[in-house]
Amino acid sequence: MITIIPEAPENVAAFNASGEVTKEDFENLVFPVVKEKVEHFHELNYLLYLDTDIDNFTVGAWFEDALLGLKNLTNWNRAAIVTDQKGIQNFTDIFSVLMPGEFKSFPKENLYNALYWCKNGNEVEV
What we know:
Layout: E1 2-4, E2 13-18, H1 23-41, E3 44-51, H2 59-71, E4 76-82, H3 86-98, E5 102-106, H4 111-120
Parallel strand pairs: 2-3, 3-4, 4-5
Antiparallel strand pairs: 1-2
Helix pairs in contact: 1-2
């Protein structure tokens, strides 16, 4: 299931993925929120907090996630994937070379730093 992260900055489409994630999660929640953000801000700042194993994404969810990327290809500005799964962190960092905009992975303990980075491109100074 995907839910909105309510404390996200206004210019960030931020979602929490937990349990099983389906294509309906993308169709009913992610796509409408992303569309609204792109229409309002003319760019996409996106955050996905993975509170589930990547194996819990159905095939339809993977297709919809890929479709999200293609539909908004020219609008990507910043995207953060928040997870403690090393494989996903590595994939995100490699993927950033192939996509327009900036993509970055953050460990779960740095959710608020990831939200701040999505909002303005800087990390919180420690």
